[in-house]
């Protein structure tokens, strides 16, 4: 998710927590994952860390505007390979424009992690079930959360059966099939018994429906109700990310279904 595209990212996130250290990162791979989204893979030097769901301030040489992009990879990938992924949607905003029109392998930028919207339980036993509701490129921080969830909840119970694996459900909506990013990854994750994933397309013709595993509709209250059947509703955390009207609607649905407001988390400023 690209944050702060229509106004200054730093101003909009001034009240959010930020790491003090600024780290150097090198672009090691660039992929086009949709007609409007580029995936950057960056090798991060220094002692950079982040929590699943957080974003980075990106300082790009020669560009005075500081970019804000959600990390879509897991903290485990950073810990083992020093790599993070950013999926950036095209925009005229200088940092996003640079990613799409000027960025190349070998370029170096500086990064600083931040944000109060994250999933970071101390351990699997203390964690909750997860309901993730994504609209458009709001999938980015939620995809990071889902990967982190699966890292600490691989789907196995303890030998005594006292601590069964937690479960996660992801409902993900995009305008068109092409804008449904991470499709292959999500398909593999949906094969896990403790993960429920359903995808939605809001602008889809009859031809596009053929052979595709998604619903041609918006996420409705009944869809969330079905997802909650897979989870322990009273012991679930809900994370919502997408355009603000999407966040409002999803929050209203969750409250109607009996989820306490304290269980619902979203990025208010996006």
Walkthrough of the structure:
Residues 1-6 have low confidence and may be disordered. The chain has eight helices and twelve strands. The protein is globular. The protein has a seven-stranded antiparallel sheet with strand order 1-5-4-7-2-3-6. The chain has helices at 9-12, 75-81, 94-101, 139-152, 183-189, 206-209, 221-229, 244-256; strands at 2-3, 23-32, 37-44, 55-59, 67-70, 83-89, 108-114, 129-135, 168-174, 195-201, 236-241, 264-266. It has 270 residues and is α/β, with parallel strands linked by helices.
Short description:
The chain is of the alpha/beta class. It has helices at 9-12, 75-81, 94-101, 139-152, 183-189, 206-209, 221-229, 244-256; strands at residues 2-3, 23-32, 37-44, 55-59, 67-70, 83-89, 108-114, 129-135, 168-174, 195-201, 236-241, 264-266.
Key features?
single chain; about 270 residues; five-stranded parallel sheet; globular; disordered N terminus
């Amino acid at each position: 998710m690209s944050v702060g595209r229509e106004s200054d990212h730093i101003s909009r996130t001034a009240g959010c927590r930020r790491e003090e250290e600024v780290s150097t990162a090198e672009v090691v791979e660039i992929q086009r994952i949709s007609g409007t989204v580029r995936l950057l893979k960056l090798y991060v030097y220094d002692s950079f860390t982040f929590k699943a769901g957080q974003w980075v301030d990106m300082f790009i040489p020669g560009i005075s505007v500081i970019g804000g992009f959600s990390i879509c990879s897991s903290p485990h990938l950073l810990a083992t390979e020093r790599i993070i992924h950013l999926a950036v949607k095209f925009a005229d905003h200088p940092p996003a424009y640079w990613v799409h029109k000027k960025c190349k392998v070998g370029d170096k930028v500086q990064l600083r992690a931040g944000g109060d919207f994250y999933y970071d339980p101390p351990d699997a036993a203390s964690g909750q079930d997860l309901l993730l509701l994504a609209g458009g490129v709001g999938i980015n921080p939620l995809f990071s959360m889902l990967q982190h969830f699966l890292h600490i909840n691989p789907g196995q119970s303890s030998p005594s059966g006292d601590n069964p694996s937690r479960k996660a459900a992801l409902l993900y909506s995009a305008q068109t099939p092409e804008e449904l990013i991470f499709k292959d990854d999500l398909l593999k994750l949906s094969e896990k018994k403790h993960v429920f994933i359903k995808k939605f397309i809001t602008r889809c013709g009859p031809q596009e429906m053929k052979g595709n595993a998604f619903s041609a509709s918006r996420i409705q209250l009944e869809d969330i109700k079905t997802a909650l059947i897979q989870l322990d509703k009273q012991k679930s955390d809900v994370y919502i990310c997408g355009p603000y009207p999407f966040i409002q609607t999803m929050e209203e649905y969750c409250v109607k279904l009996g989820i306490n407001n304290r269980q619902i988390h979203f990025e208010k400023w996006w």
